[in-house]
Design a protein that fits this description.
With 273 residues, the chain is an alpha/beta fold. It folds into two domains: 189 residues, Rossmann fold (3-Layer(aba) Sandwich), CATH 3.40.50; 64 residues, no CATH class. The protein has a nine-stranded mixed beta sheet with strand order 4-1-2-9-8-3-7-6-5, sandwiched between helices. α5 links the parallel β6 and β7. It is globular. Bound molecules: adenosine-5'-diphosphate and magnesium ion. The site of adenosine-5'-diphosphate has 11 residues, from α1. GO terms for molecular function: ATP binding; ATP hydrolysis activity.
């Protein structure tokens, strides 16, 4: 991941081949020998440098899809290609950040939480230390390098998890509601930080959320999923929208809200901010 001095507001032009190509993916879970379908038919692509948001109601299969792309679940149908490859066994080319605060190694200080996976993935001790320092600095964590996870707030733990994932320089960064368990104020601060960092680092990101505001703010494109078993309701381009005060930003939020409530046939669906 090349760090650039001037932040790019738009992803790389889409003339390049997609990095990730999801075509008619169908995913489910075996229960009593039968496939319970969670994701019925989902297609979308991610190009290098794009931040694609998966937005949809609770239970619609967002995490299922993300775990399938991470290689933890085999799709039951369709195809998922990463750089043209369909063998998606889990690997450091797809680092994952989860919502839970307990994803760090509790027995390692912050710095070692970053260097350990780098060492496991073949980096020399000197390289791992240099890369860890770079990403801790990027996420504003240098002062906390020696602290243990239990000494950090929820927001700081999530920043460490993001720094650790980015330090692996994955071809695709997978994030599953990483700010979902944070208070509103910390959440908007981390959204701003990620927005800046991800654009300057040219990271390619698939980000799961059920927050409309988060989807429009962080994303270049929003893939809207319907109620389960899910299909794609719409794919909306929001690359030009990064000012929440702009009328176009509010319009995009209103449009997404209408798509989600139009599809809200199950009373159990989440509320959307
Ligand atoms: P989301 O992340 O959009 O809230 P999930 O992908 O977690 O939704 O879940 C989609 C559906 O798959 C839900 O009906 C859920 O109950 C089901 N599901 C999720 N994980 C499992 C599992 N490990 N085994 C069986 N069913 C599951
Ligand atoms: Mg989920």
């Amino acid at each position: 991941m090349e760090l650039r001095t001037s932040p790019a507001d738009t992803p790389a032009p889409r003339t390049s081949a997609p990095l990730l190509d999801v075509e008619h993916a169908r995913v489910g879970y075996e229960l009593d020998g039968r496939l319970q379908v969670a994701v019925e038919d989902v297609s979308f692509a991610i190009h290098p440098g794009e931040h694609v948001m998966l937005l949809g109601p609770s239970g619609c299969g967002k995490s299922t899809l993300l775990k399938t792309i991470a290689g933890f679940i085999e799709p039951a149908g369709g195809s998922i290609r990463l750089n043209g490859r369909t063998d998606l066994s889990p690997g450091p080319d797809r680092a994952v950040v989860f919502q839970e605060f307990d994803q760090l190694f509790p027995w390692f200080p912050v710095e070692r939480n970053l260097t350990y996976p780098l060492r496991v993935n073949g980096r020399s001790k000197a390289d791992a230390a240099r890369i860890a320092a770079e990403y801790l600095d990027l996420m504003g964590l240098s002062h906390a390098a020696d602290r243990y996870p239990h000494q950090l707030s929820g927001g700081m733990k999530q920043r460490v998890a993001i720094a650790r994932a980015m330090a692996l320089e994955p071809v695709l960064l997978l994030m599953d509601e990483p700010f979902g368990a944070l208070d509103a104020q910390t959440r908007s601060r981390l959204q701003r930080e990620l927005h800046e960092v991800a654009r300057s680092a040219e990271a390619t990101i698939l980000f799961v959320t059920h927050s409309i505001q988060e989807a429009v703010y962080i994303g270049h494109r929003v893939v809207v999923l319907g109620t389960p078993p899910s299909t794609v309701v719409e794919i909306l381009d929001v690359a030009h929208l990064s000012d929440p005060a702009a009328p176009e930003f509010t319009d995009a939020m209103r449009h997404l809200r209408s798509l989600l409530s139009a599809d809200d046939s199950t009373a159990e669906s989440a509320t959307f901010e």
